[in-house]
Amino acid sequence: MSNITVIGMGLMGGSLIKALKASGENYNIYAIDTNKENIESALKDGYIDKGSCNYDNIKEYIEWADIIMICTLPSIAIDIICKYKHLIDNKKILSDFCGVKTDIFNNTKDKKYIGLHTMAGKEKGGYQNSSETLFKNSNAIIVKNDNANENDIKIIEKLAYDIGSGKVITSTAKKHDEMIAFTSQLMHIIACGIVNHDNFLASLGFEGNSLADHTRVGTIDANMWSELFLYNSEYLYEELDKYIKCLEDFQNALNNKDREKLKNLMNNSNNIKNEWIIRKNTKNNIN
């Protein structure tokens, strides 16, 4: 049985408490969220055992917990850690659900830190959009420091599987942020770029599934994603620069009416994508 204090009940924190209760495992959950309605709703529906809409009870909630899971924006998470980490002894696991890890990691070096990032989300945030199935079959990434032992890691790994993750890997904070800049943040920039294109509104009646596929995340939580982008700006800038160069390859081939170059770019894409599928299937079969 694990006692978990969840701080922040937006889309991620709300989905976390719902998935934990739906798992059927023995999790006792306390929660803190500044939105009183979120706390009242979670208590009424039985997703949490105790809740507070302010930080007056945080000492009690931290002392009670085995795991402290922070599910807020990175800036808020860092502020919480800096203000209250003196209450967290080394028997407790300090964790977070943030989409970037380096700055969190750097502020938790004196604690037993095991961060978790599930690769799942929705276009709309908030507790009202949270779901117990949000993490189903998602990849989950664990980032830990040297104060965490193998048993501690297994506890967070089990939690990830209990909420529905299909695969869990471990990473350094640096590698996590480098890869997330490409796999997640760049994809959101691309979607926004297409939606901001002059022809997007005029496209109705001319569009196929490819436009919908490429713009699924074009409806975006600007407050959250702008912060995530800036916390990871160095790596994201590098990935965006690489992508712009890929676009320029196509642009130059078109400008030069170079069909062979276009075919080479497309065939190269085919080969790389096929290799990606083979590697993905191989990893899935191993796991």
TrEMBL record:
Protein name per Swiss-Prot or TrEMBL: Prephenate dehydrogenase
Coiled-coil segments: none
Taxonomic lineage of the native organism: Bacteria, Pseudomonadati, Spirochaetota, Spirochaetia, Brachyspirales
Keywords annotated in UniProt: Oxidoreductase
Biological process per Gene Ontology, one example term: tyrosine biosynthetic process
Source organism, top-level taxon: Bacteria
InterPro entries registered for this protein in UniProt: 6-PGluconate_DH-like_C_sf, NAD(P)-bd_dom_sf, PDH_C, PDH_N, Preph/Arog_dehydrog, Prephen_DH
GO molecular function (one): NAD+ binding
Domain Prephenate/arogenate dehydrogenase residues, every copy: 2-284
Tagged with keyword Flavoprotein: no
